[in-house]
């Protein structure tokens, strides 16, 4: 099969090459990948900053949309050859074939394109996990969503809208801060410290009930400063640093919580539980058109270097999808 390999840490170091075919183990199915998508984790792994979990493929790619082509004997699953699915994996999706736990696959509607389907798993499940499962966002709450123009950000804006929550979306530029406007999100340009007070002003002193943060250390103090009483900060990324000082008295006064969450490092069983809850809640909404994958661009897998450069330049709104076999 063909797959993208990392031969150098720069984006140009991604090369399409022939590698041995993926082979499913018991409990797994083999998928012919039609599309995958670029995540920040892929870029960090390419740079040598985010190694895959032990026992996981060194090939990049955390999600895929494709067709089941093999179900090994003894695999307990309702999936059959020919089924169209999306899936989450610890790695290996930048390839023509992918072995994945059957429990980590979700069937998709026949009407959904491969590109749209590939734009769902990582970002929508991350946003669902942060806002719904951990953040307990509900009708009338205020959600502060950082990096609103990212894949997770545009997914979170939609989930907040469906829940009847008010969403404030941040970005460092006015052009990207408005990315959630189609789902009622208010734009907040964050160009330095002090946005916590601005969030309080925008909410008449209430603050944010849930903060979805992909940034980390750089935003910690302001995230805590803008928390509503009993508010929850759900941390899903660290692009803004790993270490920060915090006046913990502010967190105590707010009766607030800081919750860390990732998907990649979770066990197959944990992912299966999260994905089952997500599928039951979200897939009917996708089928009805209430939730919509946001695809910035579709690029052939052979041009993965171009796709990585586009994401690194912060030009994408939503997901950059890699089309496989085209």
Describe the 3D structure.
The structure is a single chain. The chain has 326 residues and is an alpha/beta fold. The protein has helices spanning 40-46, 114-118, 121-134, 151-163, 174-177, 195-202, 220-225, 248-253, 268-288, 304-312, and strands spanning 2-6, 14-18, 28-37, 63-70, 84-88, 97-101, 105-107, 142-145, 166-171, 186-189, 208-213, 227-235, 257-260, 295-300, 319-323. The chain has 2 domains: 2-120 and 264-323, Quinone Oxidoreductase, Chain A, domain 1; 123-260, 3-Layer(aba) Sandwich (Rossmann fold). The strands form 3 sheets. Strands 3, 4, 5, 6, 7, 14 and 15 form a 7-stranded mixed sheet that branches. Strands 10-9-8-11-12-13 form a 6-stranded parallel sheet, with helices on both faces. Strands 1-2 form a two-stranded antiparallel sheet. The protein has 10 helices and 15 strands. Helices cover 29% and strands 26% of the residues. It is globular and about 55 Å long. The mean pLDDT is 97.
List the helices and strands and how they pair.
Layout: E1 2-6, E2 14-18, E3 28-37, H1 40-46, E4 63-70, E5 84-88, E6 97-101, E7 105-107, H2 114-118, H3 121-134, E8 142-145, H4 151-163, E9 166-171, H5 174-177, E10 186-189, H6 195-202, E11 208-213, H7 220-225, E12 227-235, H8 248-253, E13 257-260, H9 268-288, E14 295-300, H10 304-312, E15 319-323
Parallel strand pairs: 8-9, 8-11, 9-10, 11-12, 12-13, 14-15
Antiparallel strand pairs: 1-2, 3-4, 3-6, 3-15, 4-5, 5-7
């Amino acid at each position: 099969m063909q797959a993208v390999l990392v031969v150098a840490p720069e984006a140009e170091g991604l090369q399409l090459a022939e590698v041995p075919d993926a082979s499913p183990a018991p409990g797994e199915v083999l998928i012919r990948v039609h599309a995958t998508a670029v995540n920040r984790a892929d870029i960090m792994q390419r740079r040598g900053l985010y190694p895959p979990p032990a026992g996981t493929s060194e090939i990049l790619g955390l999600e895929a949309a494709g067709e089941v082509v093999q179900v090994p004997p003894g695999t307990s699953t309702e999936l059959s050859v020919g089924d169209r699915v999306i899936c989450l994996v610890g790695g290996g999706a930048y390839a023509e074939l992918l072995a994945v736990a059957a429990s980590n696959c979700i069937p998709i509607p026949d009407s959904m394109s491969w590109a749209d389907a590939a734009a769902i798993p990582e970002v929508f499940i991350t946003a669902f996990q942060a806002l719904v499962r951990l953040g307990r966002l509900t009708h009338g709450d205020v959600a502060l969503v950082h990096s609103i123009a990212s894949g997770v950000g545009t997914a979170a804006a939609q989930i907040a809208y469906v829940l009847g929550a008010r969403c404030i979306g941040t970005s460092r530029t006015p052009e990207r801060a408005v990315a959630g406007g189609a789902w009622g999100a208010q734009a907040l340009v964050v160009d330095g410290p002090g946005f916590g007070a601005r969030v309080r002003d925008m909410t008449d002193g209430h603050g944010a009930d849930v903060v979805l943060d992909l940034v980390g250390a750089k935003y910690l103090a302001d995230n805590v400063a803008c928390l509503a009483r009993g508010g929850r900060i759900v941390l899903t990324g660290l692009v803004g640093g790993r270490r920060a000082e915090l006046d913990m008295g502010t967190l105590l006064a707010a009766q607030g919580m800081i919750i860390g969450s990732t998907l990649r490092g979770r066990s197959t069983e944990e992912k299966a539980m999260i994905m089952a809850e997500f599928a039951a809640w979200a897939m009917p909404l996708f089928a009805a058109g209430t939730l919509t994958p946001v695809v910035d661009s579709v690029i052939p897998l052979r041009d993965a270097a171009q796709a990585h450069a586009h994401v690194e330049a912060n030009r994408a709104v939503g997901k950059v999808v890699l089309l496989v076999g085209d």
